[in-house]
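Handout, section 4.2: multi-component inputs.
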Amino acid sequence: MKESEPARRSPLLAGALSALLPGLGHVSLRQWYRGVAILLSFLVLTGIVAWYAEPLISWDSSIYPLLAFLAWFKFGGFWYLAPAGMWLWNIWDAASLAGCGRTRTILIPLLFGMMAAYGIGWQLVEVDFSAASLDRAMAIIRPMLYPDMVEERRELNRMWTYVSVPCSATETPPQARREEDGKVASATPDCAKLSEALTVSVSGMWPDTDTIVWWETAIGDDKPLGGNENAPLIVRTDATGSLTVVIHVPSTVMIAQPDPSLMLQHRVYFDQYRPLGGYQITSNGGFVLKGMMESVTMALMATTLSILLAIPISFLAARNLMGGNPFTLFIYVITRTILNFVRSIEALILAIVFVIIVGLGPFAGVMALAVHSVVALAKLYSEVIEGIDPGPIEAVKATGANWLQVARYGVIPQIVPPFTAFTIYRWDINVRMSIIIGMVGGGGIGQYLIQWIQINEMGAVGAAFIAIAVVVITLDYLSAKVRERLV
Amino acid sequence: MLRIQNLTKVYPNGTQALKDVSFEVKDGEFLVVIGLSGSGKSTLLRCINRLIDPTEGKITWDDIDITAAPPAELRRIRRQIGMVFQQFNLVKRSSVMTNVMNGRLGYANPWLSLLGIWPPTDKQRAVKALERVGIADKASSRADALSGGQQQRVGIARALMQEPRLVLADEPVASLDPVLSHSILHYLEQLNKEGMTVICSLHFLDLVHRYATRVIALKDGIKVFEGLPAEIDRAKFKEIYGEEAQEVRATTVEASA
Ligand SMILES: Nc1ncnc2c1ncn2[C@@H]1O[C@H](COP(=O)(O)OP(=O)(O)O)[C@@H](O)[C@H]1O
Ligand SMILES: [Mg+2]
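Output:
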């Protein structure tokens, strides 16, 4: 239906009508669509404000209404004014329509709509830049700057002695003294209660060497003895290889002990390290490498698996092969629809689903990546097939080649290089995705990474970041190079 | 002697591309087929080596019935018929050498050829073929790295590998400029002088006069002329190409003459 020519009327009347009910002025000028659209927009906008907006400040409690009004803006409440703006524009538009037959730009009401959207967004995310604390950030970032990847190769010289905690009323404690390989470690007295002082000494160690003195509880927990029981206690041996130091029994050594009066054997250790020359991979570094290898091979498995499925599917999804008759065309449409649907599901979501189905670990990750890759590759492959040039095939046929030869020399050279290029590209993507997928339990370095983040092993996190960056950049570069040669 | 009898081709969509076309080609002829675009030239040439199966009619070569040949026999016939295309039809990503070797597929051991293993004699033959068309130095280039004229020479070298007795050339120079056109047709002429029969579709009147020993003309799938090139003057050309096309044709002919 075409809008009829607007009947000229008094702008005042039209404006007043629109002020009474937004859009009414337009309707009176027989601008039906515009009138109804304005009314609906106004209602929706007002509805959103009424429903979503929270009272930011109570009017009665405020002595200074102007300040309260300004506070609105500070809290992002400016968008509450959007319906009012819309209402004013609607009056102006109606009056202008009646006066000179011209409507006003709808950019302005759109702007009010945007205002509401951003207002809601602003409140929703609670934008608070003061929350970004540099100290907190540095506390996390600093250990990441010392990636837990390689360490100096060191030799350990260790000695220990028993200490009994607490002293028993009935039993005499065993002597807190041990000899081994010419080293002697001892503690006096032989038993002590929590937080009590003990004198521990060791001899026969390496001379003039820093020695870490630490406590191992009866159930095998490590306790540092320095600072406030939160830092290592480091003492240097003298020229003869001996040291003596007063320690306090850590206050937490009996925490898991059901009967606090029971005397148990704890240990005090003396550890010395000496560089052996060269470097070695730390245990976390080993996990980084292992995880990285898992991620890369997961991606490889998923990609390989998906090639096998994607090739046959791609033939079904190629229009030039399937367009021939209605039946094959139907299969083509169905295949395409399924591909488009599955492709819209993120691999991460598939991973969560597969973790539920097959349990945590690399298999879930591989399945998720494989499913996603099958559809992605099938689409790309089918486009390659659709792009096959029939000319060379015809030419090879004309030389008297049989159909296998035609396939080998006319078809394969046309599809294998782009197939390979797309596949390598997919593998490259899969390596990146497998890292993310690991974080929801799909195995690989992502799974280690999320655990390290949770237990605040930031050194290992830093090492993982480096490994990820190196692998991703390298693969990116290599795959781009290889693709360049193929296409 | 190639004999085409009552050849008719109706495509599945109902287009009648050839209507009852009959003619003969004697060994050693350079037969040129002319006609407007869409007149059925490509269809005719492709019926001869059965890249397209004719709907009706019969094609015999010496005493062999091409139209009735079973697959294995058809491949033996095809390997003796070289074909050159307007769009060169090279496998673009393959090397020039591989494209030329493809001409040998009809003769090679099928299984070894699938593995890319060729008899040494075939390799020498390929080098000679490339030398003959003057691009021996391009043997290891990718086909699509070559210019149009060079690609068509690869196309001719590929046909040469078949040691053909008959060459079908479907507008071999329509994608090339006039100078290159002459150099390509010159190769075909030489082959013809060495005894090969050539059937070639062409667009330009001067090229027809220069190279053809005999001419047939198609219009809407019907053979409208058969005779010597000298018999085709402007008036005849106009008749074949229709009133609309004359101006374009005339100027193109002048430009390339
Ligand atoms: N594969 C095909 N299917 C249907 N019609 C075709 C096909 N190939 C060619 N034709 C039609 O047949 C007629 C002759 O085509 P063609 O032999 O290519 O002519 P020319 O080579 O002289 O330009 C044209 O009308 C063309 O549209
Ligand atoms: Mg043609």
